[in-house]
Amino acid sequence: MEGFPASVGLDDWTEQDKERLIREIEKAHREWLIAQEMLNQVDTPDLIDYSIYFFKAAEAKYIYLHKLGKAIGLKLSHPVQWEES
Asked: Which is a Pfam family this sequence falls into (predicted)?
């Protein structure tokens, strides 16, 4: 994500960076939930394809940000439930 320290070392992250990352994680979580709901509700073939793409992209973003948050020592409120391949 743009503007975050390139290094994952805990000392490289300011409190402002951490707060911004938490907001990004929360936003990505909401996007992921919306994508799940959309995927469950669509029935048009073109929309199904789009919904799958949107869901996978939202999931990848959320997983990445969540792992980054854990790597720098953030205590995150929502658990991540996904299967890694």
From this structure: DUF2508
C-alpha torsion sign, points 22, 27, 31, 34: positive
Task: Please write down the HEC assignment for all residues of 15-63.
Answer: HHHHHHHHHHHHHHHHHHHHHHHHHHHCCCHHHHHHHHHHHHHHHHHHH
In 3-state terms, what secondary structure has residue 11? helix
Confidence category of residue 85, pLDDT binned at 50, 70, 90: very low
Q: Cβ(37)–Cβ(27) under 8 Å?
A: no
Tell whether 7 is covered by a domain. no
Whether 62 is covered by a domain: the verdict is: yes
> What pTM was estimated for this model as a whole?
0.79
Whole-number pLDDT of residue 6: 60
Q: 65 is in which domain, residue-wise?
A: 28-74
Domain count within the chain: 1
